[in-house]
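Subject: Amino acid ABC transporter substrate-binding protein, PAAT family

B.,
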Amino acid sequence: MSIFKPTRRSLLVTGAVSLAMPAVLTRAAFATTPDEIKKRGKVIVGIQGDNPPFGFVNTSGKQEGLDAAMGELFAKELGVQVEFTPLAVANRIPALTAGRVDVLFATMAMLPERAKAVQYSKPYAANYITLVAAKSTVVKTNADMGKLVIGVPRSSTQDTQITKNAPEGTTIRRYDDDAATLQALLSGQVQAVGANMFYVQRLNAQKPDTFEDKLEFQRLYNGACTRLGEKEINATLNSFIDKIKANGELAKAYATWMKVPLPEFPASVEGVPFVVS
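Prediction pasted inline below.
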């Protein structure tokens, strides 16, 4: 008799399916249209509260960053107020599918497994996923990760990429959010972290000239997310993103928060539809 031993790949697939299930169960009950949002007078935006420059809370308690700018511009487009709901990485999709928020502007990298659970818009931001460690830590290949303790935000793209690329047996510690992951490296709890394009900048702000990118795993694009099957709000989001790309508002927000030029965005991402079929 054969005994099935789950691999990292099978666990990732199982996780994607489990994410998709609540969407199927709840989308009929929480189908929110732009007209319903307008009648309510506010759009409820799920966002990260600890991941600058995408989304973060400033010292006055105000939500800021590129995703906050996107939420504010979308609310302006609808003619309503915006209400931000800060979410941990692992809670973003559950908050959307459960109807707690209308839309996610929450550093949602476009991934085929996530597209089974949520509906993406066209992309509005770019990112890349790396391994970051101290300059003194020698990492030249994926195999070198096996000798390190690596931190990642739980259920993030970093988590997926480190799990996929690190050798079997690598110690991976999962934290609730980006801030906790960064602190784990700064405090010596881990020797490296799965990172986005801004981790080095944030880490070196605490310990100057100490950290660097070691390996690059994936180039990504971020989109807004709504529930599966919600055609009207998906179409409205896509029209809104086209509009702010054309009129310069997205480039202005990018210059303010990302400090880099607006990238070229792909017309399609394999396995991730931008339009409700």
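The CA atoms of residues 255 and 261 lie 6 Å apart.

T.
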